[in-house]
Amino acid sequence: MTSTDFHSSTPLVGIIIGSQSDWETMRHAGETLDRLGVPWEARVTSAHRTPERLNAYAGGAKARGLKVIIAGAGMAAALPGAAAAITPLPVLGVPMEGRVMGGLDALLSMSQMPAGIPVGTLAVGRAGAVNAALLATAILALADAELAARLDAFRADQASAVPEDPTRQS
Asked: Is it the case that residue 170 has pLDDT exceeding 90?
């Protein structure tokens, strides 16, 4: 499946990024959601450059049917926290790799949210994007038995791809 297959479905997950350059990393979240059959949408909405767009997006997310927001951001990493301050939905933050500190600055910014404004912060870069999609799917699967079965199958496939004997090539 691809994201285009889901344009007729109501998206359940919103992927937001602060800059177009973040898509190279965050596309992995979309690809993982596609693999699991979860409808999603993606938008560029910067906390600093387009705050009105962020306010409209996050403020209307629940009413539009979204259940989870995945927010990728670098540097000051304000996007996930700003989104979490606007919406009651779970917000999963993915720190982008950066030139200055390799993403550590974004990771620390996301993980140090004040009490009352939670952001579920994942790993820096591609691993964080994939895991954010898997965590979003796990959240959705709590209320969707078919999705839970697809997630279980994904995890079983992943486990079966790991060889037990390191001396044998598969």
From this structure: no
Which phi and psi (to 5°) does residue 143 adopt? -120, 15
Alpha helices in 51-144 (DSSP H): 51-60, 78-86, 104-111, 126-141
The pLDDT assigned to 8 comes to 52
Indicate the pLDDT class of residue 2, thresholds 50, 70 and 90: very low
User: Which CB contacts under 8 angstroms, 24+ apart, belong to 27-33?
Assistant: 27/129, 28/126, 28/129, 28/130, 28/133, 29/70, 29/72, 29/94, 29/129, 29/130, 29/132, 29/133, 29/136, 30/3, 30/133, 32/129, 32/130, 32/133, 32/134, 32/137, 33/3, 33/133, 33/136, 33/137
* Token pair of 19 as six digits: 């800059």
